[in-house]
């Protein structure tokens, strides 16, 4: 591991200023992802700014009836919070499918959203990876790409984003509060946080260097039943092959409103308004669910080993929608 200097931040402004002033500086909190990457030589920061003791752990109700989750709130605490379990069960379900109990006890809300891909070619410094070394090529394109993207990828990168929490928050319409060197904090929808790779897969999100997520803002819970389903290779401690976050409200045996987002299939949580519009007013039938899946998966492309994901995503979405309206 490369030698680095360490600093414990006194407040948010000081932390942002310290990282912004050094291109080789990184924030650290739970460290469940960054430390692994540093040991492997993928991340080589010269300076570490510890933000774990900042006062950003509270989970509070907002004036509009939503919820504010501090960026330092632990994944296990968020999943166990009464307001989250009662009003946003989708979020609690997603968190409890992620990682192990030990990791959830260390991982933070902000860190979960900003964790980096688990693509094995990204982790192996002997392999070519445009995300780790721009211009090096993408070994996953011709390699074992069973876990890789079928949507939103490019010839430069086919890695997926691993966060279950981000998928649930995208379906719930959450936003993030961001602090940096600007005078006022800004907000950004969670669905706009992560970027598609295009020709610059090394630029993974829309935060500026030195900007920090300080909170997640949840709007009032939407109408309908919330359900998160995750398909993976083993029952625990595995990243999603495909995951589905669904929120469906019904009236007179028809879908009154629906929200759907996919995980494990793209470099970011995958949600489209067009797919959700196809469900509005439609009967609770297999044809309705398949129609939404067809729109959501429009343009899906496999790269050999992961061809099966297209049909897996279609079936998982159909089953999750059926379960969300009590048909399974």
UniProtKB/TrEMBL annotation:
- State what protein this is by name: Xanthine dehydrogenase family protein subunit M
What are the record keywords, sorted? FAD, Flavoprotein, Plasmid
Pfam families, per database record: CO_deh_flav_C (PF03450), FAD_binding_5 (PF00941)
Give the SMART domains listed for this entry: CO_deh_flav_C (SM01092)
- Bilayer-crossing residues are none
SUPFAM superfamilies found in the cross-reference section: CO dehydrogenase flavoprotein C-terminal domain-like, FAD-binding/transporter-associated domain-like
Q: Which residues form the signal peptide?
A: none
> What organism does this protein naturally occur in?
Rhizobium sullae
The UniProt record lists the FAD-binding PCMH-type domain at: 1-223
InterPro entries found in the cross-reference section: CO_DH_flav_C, CO_DH_flav_C_dom_sf, Diverse_Substr_Oxidored, FAD-bd_PCMH, FAD-bd_PCMH-like_sf, FAD-bd_PCMH_sub1, FAD-bd_PCMH_sub2, Mopterin_DH_FAD-bd
């Amino acid at each position: 591991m490369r030698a680095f200097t360490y600093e414990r931040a006194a407040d948010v402004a000081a932390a942002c200023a310290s990282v912004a002033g050094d291109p080789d500086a990184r924030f650290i909190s739970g460290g469940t992802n960054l430390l692994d990457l540093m040991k492997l030589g993928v991340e080589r920061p010269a300076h570490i700014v510890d933000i774990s003791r900042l006062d950003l752990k509270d989970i509070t109700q907002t004036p509009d009836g939503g919820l504010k989750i501090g960026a330092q709130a632990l994944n296990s605490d968020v999943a166990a919070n009464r307001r989250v379990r009662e009003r946003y069960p989708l979020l609690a379900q997603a968190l409890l499918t992620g990682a192990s109990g030990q990791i959830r006890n260390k991982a933070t809300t902000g860190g979960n959203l900003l964790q980096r891909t688990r693509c094995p070619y990204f982790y192996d410094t002997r392999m070519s990876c445009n995300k780790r070394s721009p211009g090096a090529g993408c070994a996953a394109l011709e390699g074992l790409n069973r876990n890789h993207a079928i949507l939103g990828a490019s010839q430069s990168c086919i890695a997926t984003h691993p966060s279950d929490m981000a998928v649930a928050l995208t379906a719930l319409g959450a936003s993030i509060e961001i602090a940096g060197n600007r005078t006022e904090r800004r907000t950004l929808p969670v669905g706009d946080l992560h970027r598609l790779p295009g020709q610059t897969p090394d630029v993974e999100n829309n935060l500026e260097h030195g900007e920090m997520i300080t909170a997640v803002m949840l709007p009032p819970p939407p109408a309908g039943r919330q359900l998160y389903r995750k398909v993976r290779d083993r029952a625990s401690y595995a990243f999603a092959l495909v995951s589905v976050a669904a929120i469906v409200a019904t009236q007179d045996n028809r879908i009154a409103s629906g929200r759907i987002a996919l995980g494990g299939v793209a470099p970011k949580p995958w949600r489209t308004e067009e797919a959700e519009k196809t469900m509005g007013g439609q009967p609770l039938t297999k044809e309705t669910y398949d129609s939404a899946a067809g729109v959501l998966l429009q343009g899906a492309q496999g790269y050999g080993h992961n061809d099966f994901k297209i049909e897996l995503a279609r079936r998982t979405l159909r089953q999750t929608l059926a379960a969300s309206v009590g048909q399974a």
